[in-house]
Automatic annotation (TrEMBL):
This is Glycosyltransferase. It comes from Ramlibacter pinisoli. It comes from the Bacteria. Gene3D superfamilies: Spore Coat Polysaccharide Biosynthesis Protein SpsA, Chain A (3.90.550.10).
Length: 335
C-alpha cells in the first residue's frame, strides 16, 4: 500500500514593511525649546534609527552637546547661523530643506513641537494609504496646542478627529496684496478630509516633495502657506487633513507656560540688520503676487496639471477676481 505524504506548504507571503526613513526639517530662530522638540521626536518615534534631523538653527549659541547627543541613533545634520544674518522663516526653511539626503519621507516642523508615541509609523501609514492613484499627497494642518505645566508638556487637543483649514471668518482680499488669514476648524470625522491650505510648521509628504517643491527663499512669512498650497495644487498634488494628527504645537501666547520666544521681526533683533523685516515682507508680497499671476518663476512657479480657475471652483478662493465664495470658509467634504 502506498503511503501518502503531506506537502509542506510554504508560509504565506507577507507584505514588505513600508520604507520608513524620514527627513525631519527644522528651522529654528532663537528657540529655547529646540532641544526639547528634537528629543521628543526621537523618544516618541517607533524607529528612531530611521530619522534624519536637518536643523537650521538661527541662534547665538548651539544647544548643549548633551542635548544633541541624545538624538542617537537618529542622524543629525546641524547648521547654525547668527540671528543677525537671518532673513526670515522661508529663507531658513529653504536652507533646512537643502539638507535632505534622499530619505523616503519628508517631515517639516516648527522648532517648538511635541509628539505622540509612534508618530512616525502613523504618518507613514496614513500617507501610504492615501498615495495610490495620486500624483502626490501632503498631510498637513495647524496642530492642536500643548503647553508646559511645572516644566512638563501637556497636550491641549482641539479634537481627536480632524483639523481642517478654512479662511478666517470675516477675511477679505486687501486691495494691495493677496495674503489671506486661515485657521483650523475641528471636524468630528474619522476619515481624512481634502485640504485647500496647509500648515508650513506641520507637513508630511513623500521624500520627493523636497525635490519637486524647493522652498522659495524670496518669500518671508505671511503668504508662504498660500504659495505652497497653490503650487502643490497646480502640479497635481493633494493636501489632506488626517484624523488624529499625532503632533502638537507650542503656540507663542500667554497660555504656553513658558516665556514668549523671540521672533525675527522683533525690534530688538532688527537694530543691527541692514535690511528690515518690512522690506523683506514687501518683497514677499510682490513674489506671491507674481506667482498667482502665473509669472515664470522657474522651480518656484505654478504647475500645469490644474489651474487657478479650477482651484477657485473647487474651494471658493478666486485669486484672479480677488473674491471669496462661501465654500472658502468651510471644510471640504471627506474623501
Amino acid at each position: 500500500m502506498r503511503q501518502s505524504s503531506r506537502t509542506r506548504r510554504s508560509p504565506a507571503p507577507t507584505d514588505p514593511p513600508p520604507p520608513m526613513s524620514i527627513f525631519v526639517s527644522v528651522a529654528a530662530y532663537c528657540d529655547p525649546v529646540l532641544g526639547f522638540t528634537l528629543g521628543r521626536a526621537r523618544a516618541a518615534a517607533s524607529r528612531p534609527q530611521a530619522l534624519h534631523f536637518g536643523v537650521l538653527d538661527q541662534s547665538p549659541e548651539p544647544p548643549a552637546a548633551s542635548v544633541l547627543a541624545q538624538l542617537a541613533p537618529a542622524r543629525l545634520t546641524y547648521q547654525r547661523i547668527d540671528p543677525l544674518y537671518a532673513r526670515g522663516p522661508c529663507w531658513a526653511r529653504a536652507l533646512a530643506m537643502a539638507l535632505y539626503d534622499g530619505e523616503d519621507w519628508y517631515l517639516q516642523i516648527d522648532s517648538h513641537m511635541d509628539f505622540e508615541p509612534g508618530w512616525d509609523e502613523r504618518l507613514v501609514a496614513q500617507a501610504g494609504a492615501l498615495l495610490p492613484g495620486r500624483r502626490g499627497v501632503v498631510i498637513s494642518a495647524y496642530p492642536s496646542a500643548f503647553f508646559f505645566a511645572q516644566g512638563r508638556p501637556m497636550p491641549r487637543p482641539a479634537t481627536g478627529k480632524v483639523l481642517a483649514h478654512v479662511v478666517k471668518p470675516g477675511s477679505a482680499f486687501a486691495p494691495d496684496h493677496p495674503v489671506l488669514g486661515f485657521e483650523a476648524h475641528a471636524v468630528e470625522c474619522d476619515h481624512p478630509l481634502p485640504g485647500f491650505h496647509l500648515g508650513a510648521g506641520c507637513l508630511f509628504a513623500p521624500g520627493r516633495f523636497a525635490l519637486a517643491f524647493p522652498y522659495d527663499p524670496a518669500l518671508y512669512f505671511h503668504g508662504e502657506e498660500q504659495a505652497l498650497a497653490i503650487r502643490l495644487y497646480t502640479h497635481g498634488w493633494d493636501i489632506v487633513h488626517m484624523p488624529g494628527l499625532p503632533l502638537y504645537h507650542l503656540y507663542n501666547d500667554g497660555a504656553s507656560g513658558v516665556p514668549a520666544r523671540p521672533l525675527h521681526w522683533d525690534a530688538a533683533h532688527e537694530a543691527g540688520r541692514s535690511q528690515s523685516w518690512w522690506e523683506l515682507e514687501q518683497r514677499s508680497r510682490r513674489r506671491l503676487t507674481a506667482l498667482l499671476a502665473g509669472q515664470p518663476l522657474g522651480v518656484y512657479g505654478l504647475g500645469r496639471e490644474r489651474t487657478l480657475a479650477d482651484y477657485a471652483r473647487w474651494c471658493g478662493i478666486d485669486y484672479a477676481a480677488r473674491r471669496l465664495e462661501p465654500q472658502a470658509f468651510q471644510p471640504l467634504p471627506p474623501l
